[in-house]
Amino acid sequence: MVILMKVLVSGKGGCGKSTISAMLGKYLAGKGYRVLIIDADESNPGLYRMLGLPKVKTLAEHLGGKKRAKILMAAEGKGELDEELFNWTLDDIPGEILAKKGNLAVLTIGKIEEAEEGCACPYGFLARKLLEGITLKDGEIIIVDTEAGIEHFGRGIDKYVDVVIDVAEPSAESIELSKKIAALSESL
Question: For the CobQ/CobB/MinD/ParA nucleotide binding domain, which residue ranges apply (predicted)?
Fold first, then answer.
């Protein structure tokens, strides 16, 4: 079973990205794969609930909060990020940030919690660095549930995945966005 893959689920808001991510994760875990679902949607709070899992610390909280993520992001921008962030395997991920049941685990990057908190760029940075640094073993799969739209392409998150699944609904806006997602995916 030589399968190791990073899959990103993308699409318009409300089209079912989280539902597809959860269903795909449960299915693959049931088939014996070790699955990590990364909740990279900083707005929608309920992916862990869809899977019947408890709420745990986010990756951002584990690192010291959004401010710490901003510091790391700024250091990378200046070429001063010495540390290899998230040089991990699935076994190396701290337990306090994993909601687990059997072969299935969820890791949440971070959530917008307060009015006027600012942009979600630090969370995109953390998602990108996690996908860049994590190493999979045979039989392990990562599924990334993204926020609505295409901002994750601008943040470079998609650069570190093997497959992009575009979820669409039967509307002109959704089809137009699907075309854009296909073009952006091909450009990586």
Answer: 7-169
